[in-house]
Amino acid sequence: MLEPVRFSTYHGGAREEGLIDFSASLNPYPPEWLDEMFERAKEISNRYPYYEKLEEGLSKLIGEEVTVTAGITEALYLIGILALRGRKVIIPEHTYGEYERVTRIFGGTVVKGPNEPDKLAELVEKDSVVFFCNPNNPDGRFYRVKELKPLLDAIEEGRALLVLDEAFIDFVKDAESPSGENVVKLRTFTKSYGLPGIRVGYVLGFPEAFKSVRMPWGIGSTGVAFLEFLLEDGFEHLRKTMPLIWREKERLERALDVKSDANFFIKRVGDAKKAVESLKKRGILVRDCSSFRLPEHIRFSVRKPEENERLIRALKEVEREMGNGG
User: Fold this and answer.
1) For burial by CB atoms within 10 Å, which of 72, 81, 202, 301 has the most?
2) Rounded to whole angstroms, how far apart are CA atoms 286 and 154?
3) C-beta atoms surrounding 326 within 10 Å
4) Is the model's pLDDT at 325 over the cut of 50?
């Protein structure tokens, strides 16, 4: 008899038609080659998707050997196989819930700590594992290498493992990323290219270990086609669209009195569930942050100018309606 694991998380993304989706933090500008990519995916969907050569090409583009995975989610489960069983796993209090879920599935012991790297460093022990999201989800705070140093030092001294989730790092201006023998970095294209359905990400660090346990044909023909076009694109799409997102981010910061280093914000509204429903009535979907243990906050992303304008008006109306006054 198989019993379900009694732990679940809620993920963003519209489940209803007709709403402007601010709940999923994605690049709102699709690549110009999107239609061609899907045509290519149809062409190769009658064969098994081998992508070793594309993985080599991506490694050259990144400048470091990568392991391609079906988004960061597959990478988290591979870490479960490789490193979590029987380990002390340190997770910040307000962050992505999948770290805790994967830890429990694979038999690790969850230890919650403050969201600050220096405070987490005090919890590190020999052979422990630390999950850290940078920029953090849901508040968008990005920590520079200098700020991460206490945690990096503790990891090195304790022969522990730091799992650095950099899912949103492409949205950070002048981003920097640490290196280290005991650091695994997880990245994804599904956010920065606005294509969560294609499930393509990669791991930096321990390539032999990750390649030894990942599932075969994990990303499918659409993922393979995406990698083909990505290598030809050479990140030009990101160079074109990120300045547009940064400009709109600054406008939202001024209009709604919020701050973030990423492409999304959290805002305290009092009753998050009520605010979400009120915004839905106005055609807008935002994320209730209860699953992050922040029941008074909502999260919303940066979208195109006209959509952001609708959000600004709607959110101010809802705040007045709920008596928050901003």
Assistant:
1) 301
2) 37
3) 11
4) no
